[in-house]
């Protein structure tokens, strides 16, 4: 079985994310906490620092209507709760109360290795699924990816699909239809635990800034569903990916909003 999984992963590796030395400045710009954000001279690595005075964040230059997004990330080494290290897509405008919006999140809750994924579907979210990862995310860089096309949204960790959110608009479930941009940030949130400030500063590292996506404005999102974009061709996970996803969810998922005791599962939980 181990051999099978290994083979499957090496096949996927070729297909999905290839590391690059893409320049941060070509794809992103600093958004907040500017004196807590450092870009190395080649633009190939960014550090976000969190201390008692501030965290920091950056965002993509453009808004997009579909894409295969990814980044390499290493979360802070020092042990604490309460510090959120993130990589996500959002349709919320900068510096505004987001209100109802679309958002697809990777959020590390503290530095104990638990990552939470969430889907805001033009509403308040609360579609949390958390994973206790099979590696120490503060030790090395790992790739966090989000595919968003007209058929489905897939969250990947190092090529392993860990979560799929299907377009079920035919069943009345909303689906992202507004331009979204990427953000990455470090900040503190009391819902993610208690911060041990004696361990500060907390430093997150990011690399690998290129991604594939279709730039869009509000009235041009539909143009981004064209199959001339390779990431729109995948209408569902293949058999290998489905099996991997099942295995990894069974082994590593630590919280699932779909099974938190509701008598009737939300529509978006039904396969
Ligand atoms: C969702 O799928 C439907 C077909 O079932 C399609 O018409 C629609 O454009 C898709 N929505 C988005 C936002 O891609
Ligand atoms: C890690 O921290 C999160 C947030 O505080 C908590 O929900 C989770 O149970 C912790 N996991 C472990 C394995 O300690």
From TrEMBL:
Active site: 103 (nucleophile), 107 (proton donor)
GH16 domain boundaries: 4-206
Any one Gene Ontology molecular-function term assigned to this protein's record: hydrolase activity, acting on glycosyl bonds
Leader sequence segment: 1-22
Keywords, in A-Z order: Glycosidase, Hydrolase, Signal
SUPFAM superfamilies cross-referenced by the UniProt entry: Concanavalin A-like lectins/glucanases
Domain of life: Eukaryota
One Pfam short name: Glyco_hydro_16
PROSITE patterns documented for this protein: GH16_2
Name used for this protein in its record: Xyloglucan endotransglucosylase/hydrolase protein 2
